[in-house]
Design goal:
alpha+beta, seven-stranded antiparallel beta sheet, two-stranded antiparallel sheet, binds zinc ion
């Protein structure tokens, strides 16, 4: 490895800073030196024979290049827009009220009246004081206050309002999403169109696409016959045409909400820094996501303040329910990968980053890959943060795998031809896993992890290594810390 001494000296400083920041490990400089010697011995061959041969080698154990990624169709953005459209009526038309009561108020009052009647009948039938009933039913004392004459007056008022609604309803009112409006005002308003559009977007899965299909165009034509729609037209353009024709743009929020919608349904290519790394710090920071984490994180106190927004139920065992974060129960896994000679870290970083220390940047996505000794067989571990093992969409796995395969073959100057075998059983057959990492490719739920190979048969890949305590230097298999059990300050 070129510059090994320099790389190790720099990495040592970085690791010391990192562990101090984590504030949950005991270590000294000798311990870090030991780590780096172990890392160098394990990874020197791959770094020299693959990393350094790449035209994108950064001189410090990483291959870095900008890569274009397709951004996925954003279904949530699509539904957020249809929800916003549904509320268009509320925002733009005045709800009809009688005696200052809306239809929803009335419904609620009727609920209270029903309870009142039920309680009163119970009292009459059972010759029991109302207070005792309240105790029996464990009811709020405040409800008792309603059992007065004024409640009867309220009942009259409610009944009058109900009659008024019923009489007017037949002639002039329309119920939209549970509220009443004057029919004439509603029928001639953009709000009606917004409401229909919301229903159409919600009802037809064929519209969830950037470009209209023939059926998609027909559905829109059926509902908005005055506008021309064509197969291949952008959905956002079609929606814009509807909005222009029927005056939807008069809503003050239209511009902002439509821009978000157009953004969601028109997937673009986004450029990201793509990094293939054997750098020692990357093994330690491989779970430092921009908005995600995992049980392998070394940040056991969550000093990085990661808030998990959506976690799958299957991993909630590893999550602190109060703070919604991972405990780092498998923290030692970082060392398992650092000290083996097969695994390396693939990740992406925002293209806004202009520096050179990619290993210190939040990772937008990350995958652990591992190569057999002869570089003919490649293991692809689980994709983070998607982890969409159950989804039919292979893209989150396929794109990075093809990038890594391409880089390897370019460095080795061999044809980029691979055969792929997917699933936990295959991975179990061809990966010999030792050490203290969690082999997510063996997880039965995951049939996306895979082995790909060049030549006749896949070779066995050895992954993982025992950890080394950075305080006492002991080789250990204590999974939940970088330290051994005896040195773990969190015990
Ligand atoms: Zn120790």
């Amino acid at each position: 490895m070129k510059n090994a001494t320099f790389i190790k000296a720099e990495a040592k400083e970085q690791i010391i800073d990192l562990l101090r920041e984590m504030d949950c490990y005991r270590f000294d400089e000798d311990g870090i030196d030991l780590w780096l010697d172990m890392w160098e011995r394990a990874n020197d061959k791959q770094i020299t024979e693959i990393a350094e041969k790449s035209p994108y080698y950064d001189g410090k154990c990483k291959i870095v290049f900008p890569e274009k990624f397709p951004r996925e169709f954003d279904v949530y953005g699509y539904y957020n827009f249809s929800d916003w459209l549904r509320n268009y009526v509320d925002r733009n038309l005045t709800e009809v009220r009688f005696n200052n009561l809306s239809w929803k108020d009335l419904s609620m009052c009727y609920g209270v009246l029903d309870r009142y009647d039920a309680l009163r009948n119970y009292r009459d039938d059972n010759n029991i004081a109302i207070k005792e009933i309240m105790v029996l039913l464990d009811e709020d004392e405040s409800i008792i206050n309603n059992f007065t004459d004024s409640f009867e007056r309220m009942r009259t008022k409610i009944n009058n309002a109900y009659d008024a609604f019923s009489n007017r309803q037949r002639r002039s009112l329309v119920n939209v999403n549970g509220n009443y409006y004057y029919k004439e005002e509603y029928n001639n308003s953009p709000a009606r169109v917004a409401n229909i559009l919301a229903e159409v977007l919600n009802a037809y899965d064929i519209l969830k696409t950037q470009f209209l299909t023939e059926n998609g165009a027909r559905v829109l034509k059926d509902h908005f016959p005055e506008i021309r729609f064509a197969k291949g037209q952008k959905l956002s353009k079609a929606v814009n045409a509807i909005a222009t024709k029927y005056g939807l743009k008069q809503d003050s929020e239209w511009e902002k909400e439509f821009a978000k919608f157009a953004n969601a349904v028109n997937p673009l290519e986004v450029v990201k820094w793509t990094v293939i790394s054997w750098h020692p710090v990357d093994y330690l920071t491989f779970c430092f996501g921009n908005s995600w984490s995992s049980c392998h994180t070394i940040d056991k106190k969550n000093v990085r303040k990661i808030k998990l927004t959506n976690s799958r139920s299957s991993i909630t065992n590893y999550i602190d329910p109060e703070n919604g974060r991972f405990y780092g129960e498998k923290a030692a896994g970082a060392l398992s990968y650092m000290f083996d000679s097969s695994s390396f870290i693939y990740y992406t970083v925002s293209n806004k980053y202009e520096g050179k220390h990619y290993e210190e940047q939040p990772k937008e996505s990350r995958i652990v890959f591992a190569l057999s000794d002869d570089y003919s067989t490649l293991l692809q571990g689980r994709v983070y943060p998607q982890c969409n093992d159950d989804s039919p969409d292979e893209t989150p796995y396929k794109i990075p795998r093809e990038i890594v395969q391409r880089v390897i073959c370019n460095s080795l100057n061999v044809p980029n031809l691979w055969t792929i075998k997917r699933g936990s059983n295959i991975c179990y057959d061809y990966v010999r896993s030792v050490g203290v990492h969690y082999p997510d490719w063996e997880d039965e739920r995951n049939n996306k992890c895979n082995i790909s190979y060049r030549g006749g048969q896949p070779k066995v890949i050895n992954v993982g290594h025992d950890a080394i305590c950075p305080n006492c230097g002991a080789v250990h298999t204590y999974v939940s810390s970088l330290n051994c059990y005896d040195c773990d300050p969190m015990v």
